Protein 1
Amino acid sequence: MYPELQIDRQLCFRLYTASRLVTGAYTPMLTALGITYPQYLVLLVLWEKDRQPVGEIARRLLLETNTITPLLQRMEKQGLLSRTRGESDRRQQIVALTDKGRALQEQALTTVPRGLGLKLSACPLGAEDYRQLAEGLDQIIATLSQQ
Amino acid sequence: MYPELQIDRQLCFRLYTASRLVTGAYTPMLTALGITYPQYLVLLVLWEKDRQPVGEIARRLLLETNTITPLLQRMEKQGLLSRTRGESDRRQQIVALTDKGRALQEQALTTVPRGLGLKLSACPLGAEDYRQLAEGLDQIIATLSQQ
DNA sequence: GCAGATTGTATCGCTTGCGATATAAAATAA
DNA sequence: TTATTTTATATCGCAAGCGATACAATCTGC
C-alpha cells in the first residue's frame, strides 16, 4: 500500500539484520577467547596501536564514552587491559594491553578470520562484491558520521 | 602487521557502524512519534498485515522471542498494540494494532522517509548503488540466517 | 591569578539483543 | 488414554548502545 514503508525495501532493516547476523557469526570464536564482539573491536584497535586514551578508541570505533567506559571497565576487570591517568593531562585515561590482552591476538588470528570465512563460504558474493559493499558502507558511514 | 586483523578491512565493523549510524539517523523522527527503532520495525510488520502471532513477527524480523516478547510488552503498555491468546491454538499470542498504533502509520509516512532521505542526501551513492548494496546484504543475510 | 568555558571521562536510566532456562498447550507415541 | 516430545511464548541475567547529566582537569580571557 505504502511502498515507502515496505520493510523489504528498506536499507535500514537489511543493515540492522546483516549486522546482527555477522556479529552472531563471530560469537562462537570470540566466546572461545572469552570476549564479546565489541570487546573484540576494542582489542583490534589496541593491537594496532597500544596505549591510547579512551577518547581515541571512541573516535576510532565511532562510539561515545558512555558506551566505551563501561566496556573498558569490564575488560579491565577481566585482566585484558589496564587504565592509568595520563601524565601530561590527568583527565585522560590511557588504555594499555596486558600480557593476557596481547596474547589473545595470536589466538584470534588463527581462529577468527578462518571461522568467519567458513560461515560465509556458502555466500555467492565474490571479492569484488565485498569490496563494493565495503565501499558503499563507507560512504554511508562518512555521510552520517559528520552531521 | 596482521592484515587479517586490520579493522578497516573488516566488513563486520562497517556493518556494525553503518547499522548504528542509520538507526541513529531514524531516531529523531521516531522519537517524535514516541517509538524506538525496533518498535518501528514491529509496526512496519503489523502495518503490512495486522493480527499476527508473536512467532510470525519474530520470523519476519529474524529476532528471537526473548527479544520480541519484552518489546511487545512495552508496546502494549504504551497502547500501540494488544496481545490476545489464539483461539485455535491457546499457546499463540495474537498481536493486533490498536487505533493509536494504526494512526502512527500516516505520521510515519509523512516524516520518516523524508527525514532519512534528507540526511542521506549528502551521500554520493545513487539509486543503483543502493540497489547493489541491498542485494549484497540480502546475500549475506540469506547465507547466515540458514545455518 | 581567577572566573568562566571547554574538554575528557564517568554515571544513571532505559531499551535492546541474546544465551539459558522455564512453562504450558498441542501433537505424537505407546 | 497416558506418557513423551514438540511447539509457542515467557523469564532471567548480562552486555551493549545511547540520551541526559555530572564532575574534575585544563584552557581562555581578562
Note: The two ends of chain A are 32 Å apart (CA to CA).
Protein 2
Amino acid sequence: MDEIELDERKIKILDAVIRNYLETGEPVGSRTISKYTDLNLSSATIRNEMADLEELGYILQPHTSAGRIPSDKGYRFYVDHLMQEKNREVADMKQFVIEHTEKVEQVLQQVAKILAANTNYATMVTAPSYHRNKVKFIQLSNLDEEQILAVIVTEGKLVKNKIIPVSEPIDNETMLKLNILLNSNLNGLALEEINLGTIAKLKEQAGIHSDIISNVLDTVAETMGQDEDIRIYTSGTTNLFKYPELSDSTEKASELLSTFEEKQQLASLVTENLLEEENTGIQVYIGNESPIQTMKDCSVVTATYELGEGIRGTIGIVGPKRMDYEKVMDNLKVLKNSLDGILDKPKGQT
Amino acid sequence: MDEIELDERKIKILDAVIRNYLETGEPVGSRTISKYTDLNLSSATIRNEMADLEELGYILQPHTSAGRIPSDKGYRFYVDHLMQEKNREVADMKQFVIEHTEKVEQVLQQVAKILAANTNYATMVTAPSYHRNKVKFIQLSNLDEEQILAVIVTEGKLVKNKIIPVSEPIDNETMLKLNILLNSNLNGLALEEINLGTIAKLKEQAGIHSDIISNVLDTVAETMGQDEDIRIYTSGTTNLFKYPELSDSTEKASELLSTFEEKQQLASLVTENLLEEENTGIQVYIGNESPIQTMKDCSVVTATYELGEGIRGTIGIVGPKRMDYEKVMDNLKVLKNSLDGILDKPKGQT
DNA sequence: TGTTAGCACTCCACATCATCGAGTGCTAAT
DNA sequence: ATTAGCACTCGATGATGTGGAGTGCTAACA
C-alpha cells in the first residue's frame, strides 16, 4: 500500500535523502540531493518533492530552514523496500567463531564482541533458553560424607551441576540404585513431560532418599526451565557515544547505557520472538516500535538463532535510527547461519 | 614524615577543604572554610594558610580566583590520616547476599550490584582464581557411543564439565578403571603438583585410552590454571555519569566506560594484589597511582577476599577522586568479611 | 608576631547581541 | 512541469560585557 502514494521519482529522492543521512548524520538539503542523484533536477524541484514527502510523513525537518531527515516511517519504507541485499564477505566470522572457542557461553560473548567491532553499534546476545530440551543423562556421585554431586546433561549437550548436602553418607549400592532410578524414569523427557505423577512415582521408589530426588528435580527444572533468568551478553555499548543524536544530552546516553547494564530489561526485546515457533527471520524495530521506552531514539535489529533442537537465543544490535541497515542485517544473517545447528554438527576441526 | 610539615591548624583546614569538596564537588573558598570550621578564623587567615597548603602540594587551584581542590597528595593524606573509621550498619548486606543465592558467580554479580547501589560508584568483582586449589574428585561417564562426560570437582567445591569425543565406545569396565586411575593419581593434588612425571605415568597406565587422559588433564588445567581468563563482574558503571568532573568531555566518559567493558584491562588492577600472599587489606589508588591510564582522573579502592583455602578474588570500586572514602572502605570491609571463608562454612540456613 | 579588615585584581560563568549561511517556500519566468 | 530568483527563517558561532566569587597583598590592630 505504500507504493501507491509514492511515484518513481519521489522514491528516488527519498532513497537519496536516507542514504545521505545515513552517511553524514546531518539533515540533508535540496541542493545536496540535486547534485547527488542522476535525476538532473534542480534544487527547486527537489524542494517541491521534498515538501510532498514531508506531508506524507516520510521525512521531517528538525526546524525550519534545516534540511530533512528521515522519519520512522521513512526508515521503515527504506528497510522494507529500498534496501538492497548485499552479500559481503563476513563469512570469515563463522570460521573465526568456531575455531576460537568451544564453550557456548564464550562463543556468545565472542559473537557480541565481533558484531560490535564490525558494526560500531551496541550489541547483545542472549544465551540459549532451553526450550523443549530433553534430559539425556543424570548422574549422582559421592563427594564426601556430607555431599553428593548431581550432574545433568541434556540432549542439547548442556551440562549442569549441583552439590546436594545429605544428612548421612550414602553407600555405593544405594547410589547406583538412585542413578538407575533417575535415568530410567527421566531420560528422554522434556520438562513439560515431568509431571506430578512421574515425580510421585520417583519419590515413592526412592524411599528414604526422596529428598535427594527432590533436590535433583529442582536442578533439572532450573536447567531447563524457561523462566530461568536470561543471560545476556553485551558488547560495544560505548559505541553509542559515537552518535551525537543519542549522546548529546548526556542524560539520554546515561539512561540508554543503564538499560544495557540492567540486562533484565533487554530480555523483553528478545524473548518476544523466541516464543513464536515459526518466526526465525530478522526483526527490525525502528524508534517507538521497540518495546523498550528508553530506546525510542534508536533502532534495534534482532535475529533468532537455534543452536540445536529447541535451543534458541537471540542476537541483537542497537544503534541510532540512521544505522547502516544493510550491513547490520547482513552481519546478523551470517552469524545466525553460523550459529544455527552448531550443536548438531560434530565438533572436530576438519 | 607527612606530619612534620603540617601543624595542627593546617591539618584542620586541609580536612575541612577536603570534606567540603567531597560533598559539593566545587572548589572551596576561604570564606566557606572560615564559617565551616570551629576555628573561628577569618577568611583572610584561612587564605594565608591555604596558600601554604598549596605550596606544600596538598591542594591546588583550578585557576586563579577559584577556590581550592584537593590534590592527589591531599587525598592521600586524607585517606591515610584524617579519615575516621565509621562502622555503620552495612552488615545487613551479608545476610542478604548469603540468603539470596547459592551459586558463587551469582553471589559475585549480586555483590557488585549491591555495592554499586549502595555507593553510587562503579564497581567490579572478580571471580575467584583458583590459586593453589586441589583436585577433589574426577568422574568420567558414558554419554553415548561417541562422547564421554568428564566432571571435575575441586576442594573449593568448584565444578567443571567437559564433553570429550571418543572414536569408539568405551565399555563400562574400562570406564571404571579409568575413573579409579584418575582419582587415585590426582586426588589431593594442586595444579603445580601435577608434573610431567605424573602425566606420563597416567598415560602409560591408560594404554590405548591415553588420549582421553590428555583431554581430562587439559580440563583440569583449565579449571585450576591461574592464567585462566579472569571473569569480572561490573555494575553501576553508568554511575560515573553522575560526576561531572569525569563525564564533562564525553570523550573522557566514553573512554572510561570502554575500559569497563573491555574487562581484560581491569584485570591488571586486580591481579596485582592477588599475588602478594599476606596482603589481605584494602588498597587505595588515587589518580595516577592506578595502573590503568584511563583512570587517572579517578580513585580506585580494592579489597581482596578469600572464599576458602586458596580461592581468592577482588572487589573494587571506581569513582571520582572526591569519593566518599569512608563509606566506600566501610562497605568493602563488610563485604570482604562476608565473603571471607564463605565456602568453609556449612551451607545450611540455620 | 599572628590576625584581620579592606581593596584592587583576576577570571570564569552567563547572558546578550550581531552576524553568517544553509536551507526553505513562494512567485514568476521559461 | 521545471527552474531561477528572492526574501525569509533560524540555528550555529563568535564577540562583548557584566557580575560575582575568590584571591593576594597591604596596612592596621591586639
Note: Residues 41-45, 48, 62-66 of chain A lie near DNA strand D (CB under 10 Å from a C1').
